[in-house]
Design goal:
Elements (H helix, E strand, L loop, with lengths): L1 H63 L3 E7 L1 E17 L2 E4 L5 E6 L6 E2 L4 E5 L2 H36 L5 H34 L1 E3 L4 E3 L9 E2 L8 E4 L4 E8 L3 H9 L5 E5 L6 E10 L9 E8 L11 E18 L4 E3 L2 E7 L5 E5 L1 E6 L2 E6 L6 E5 L10 E4 L6 E2 L1
Helix pairs in contact: 2-3
């Protein structure tokens, strides 16, 4: 029993001693590969974080390009007039400073300041009494000299008869002939003086030389007026028709002369200073014969009927001169055109309600529209309002006019 017990104890101790190295190896192996577990955990955490970040990035991108509400417009084909714009000054065809042609007392004026008058209307009267007295004097001299001439002619005939009978000398006859010529000269002088006074009597009645509007009077009745006074009595301007003198750069003159030389009448439109109100339509009347070398411009004159008197002398106006017309030009609303570092562009609307940034070549501006030379064709739909929030490929919503509803 004792031996058996001892054998069992020895066997147990042997097993125990043999198990100790095995447990030590397992512990060493566990410690050796324990860091792999943490590495796997760290990798899993990194992958999760990257997935979260990726989802956030996609969400950010979606938020960066939200759907934008816009108002579309259509590119159209139309005939577009080509205008040259210039600043002009309204100038009367005739601007007359009425000056007295005789010295005398201004008795009266027969117009209201600013009144429209017609050619031949009596406007003012200068005292005629001194002229009438001169007329009587000269008429008396004429009557006296006429009588002397008649008597001298009778004596000449008698002397011619007596000379034939050898009763008077040649000298006496010649003296009488020259006396007749002297009296004839006196009669002509008297007639000239009378005519001069009659002309002055006409000048004493100051009448309107043209149809127009009389300005403020510069001299009041009761003043003595003289021909040396250059300021005049008043100024008279013609208003119908009236002209506008404007200037164009010399580079624009070939376009004008091409039409003028072809015999075409160019239409000129007059607008107010702010270019918001149309005042009158007229025609190009004349082109100056030289270029101003100091400014590089040329003066032109347009004429207007001005039947409603909308154009006023010395008024500043804007002139639009029609020099050509573009047929079937592609035009788009000017509000749709944007400008970037690479030039002008528009946003075209695609069928899936996304927009495409499209470069364009722009031409002249006509009202609220602009001519497109390249990049857009008639019928294309482009964005007019809401372009400030657009980028290439962004999805948009279309605003329905009137109803206020939207569609994707």
């Amino acid at each position: 029993m004792d031996n058996t017990s001892n054998e069992q104890q020895g066997s147990a101790q042997l097993k125990k001693r043999s198990a100790i190295p095995h447990q030590s190896g397992m512990l060493h192996l566990y410690r050796k590969y324990h860091w792999l577990k943490w590495l796997i955990v760290v990798l899993i955490i990194i992958v999760v974080l990257m997935m979260i970040r990726s989802c956030g990035s996609k969400k950010g991108k979606e938020d960066h390009h939200p759907t934008v509400m816009v108002v579309p417009g259509k590119a159209q084909s139309m005939d577009v007039p080509v205008y040259l714009s210039a600043l002009g000054t309204v100038t009367p065809v005739d601007s007359i400073t009425v000056i007295t042609q005789i010295d005398g007392l201004l008795m009266d004026v027969f117009f209201k300041e600013g009144q429209m008058v017609k050619k031949g209307d009596l406007l003012a009267q200068i005292d005629q009494r001194p002229l009438l007295a001169q007329l009587n004097q000269y008429q008396g001299q004429l009557q006296r000299d006429t009588a002397l001439l008649a008597n001298a002619r009778i004596d000449l005939k008698r002397y011619e008869t007596l000379f034939k009978e050898d009763s008077v000398s040649q000298q006496t006859l010649e003296t009488q002939r020259w006396l007749v010529k002297q009296y004839e000269g006196d009669v002509k002088t008297d007639q000239g003086l009378i005519e001069s006074v009659k002309v002055n009597l006409i000048y004493s009645r100051i009448t309107s030389p043209v149809n127009g509007r009389v300005g403020l009077r510069l001299v009041d009745p009761g003043n003595f007026v003289q021909t040396t006074n250059t300021t005049g009595l008043f100024v008279l301007n013609t208003l119908q028709p009236i002209t506008v003198i404007f200037i164009l750069p010399e580079d624009d003159i070939p376009q004008v002369m091409k039409q003028v030389n072809a015999g075409k009448t160019l239409i000129a439109e007059a607008y107010d200073r702010s270019q918001t109100h149309h005042l009158a339509n007229g025609n190009l009347y004349a082109v100056d014969n030289q270029i101003d070398t100091t400014t590089g411009t040329v003066k032109l004159r347009a004429q207007f009927k001005n039947e409603d008197n909308m154009l006023f002398p010395n008024q500043f106006v804007n002139i639009k001169l029609l020099v050509d017309k573009l047929h079937n030009a592609c035009v788009v609303p000017t509000a749709a055109i944007l400008h970037g570092s690479k030039g002008a562009f528009v946003f075209l609307l695609a069928s899936n309600n996304t927009v495409k940034m499209t470069p364009v070549t722009i031409g002249i501006v006509y009202g609220d529209n602009t001519v497109i030379k390249a990049g857009v064709k008639p019928g294309d739909t482009l964005i007019v309002e809401g372009t400030d929030k657009l980028n290439d490929g962004v999805k948009v919503k279309i605003w329905q006019n009137g109803s206020g509803s939207k569609k994707a």
